[in-house]
Design brief:
Layout (H helix, E strand, L loop, with lengths): L9 E5 L4 H12 L3 E6 L15 E4 L17 E4 L14 H19 L3 E4 L13 H13 L5
Parallel strand pairs: 1-2, 1-4, 2-3, 4-5
Length: about 150
Amino acid sequence: MTLQTPPNKRVFVTGGTGFLGYRVVRALLEQGAEVTVLIKPGSEDKLGILRGRVQYVEGDPWNSASLRGRSRGHSAVIHLIGGVRPDLPRGLTFRHLNYVSARNVAQMAVGDGVPHMVLLSASVPPIGAPVGYVESKRDAEQYVQGTGLN
């Protein structure tokens, strides 16, 4: 995986402890970036061997108040949080998983003065994903595009 890091090389990553996120964080570190990972409170153990190589901050991507100021001083935010399986008993719809988290992270980036954002999205639903997945990703894309972030 080859990633180009911005000039100041401070990158904020949401979803950095997941399957893809872990690999993105490693690739950023290999490119010489300083990486900050957003984690759920008390989940720093999920960083594994990256724990000593990254900074981490606690926050909840579905609670915008917990994100304020977290990405200040970074040149880019990479948002990798989302889901292909809703958890309706817990109130986690596709809209909640994919749109609300992206909206809140984009608002954080704008409020913190971060100029760039990368959003993990999808153009077709993964095999077996119910109706609503792609729409929630598309809504997230449209929201981010309207923020003025590069």
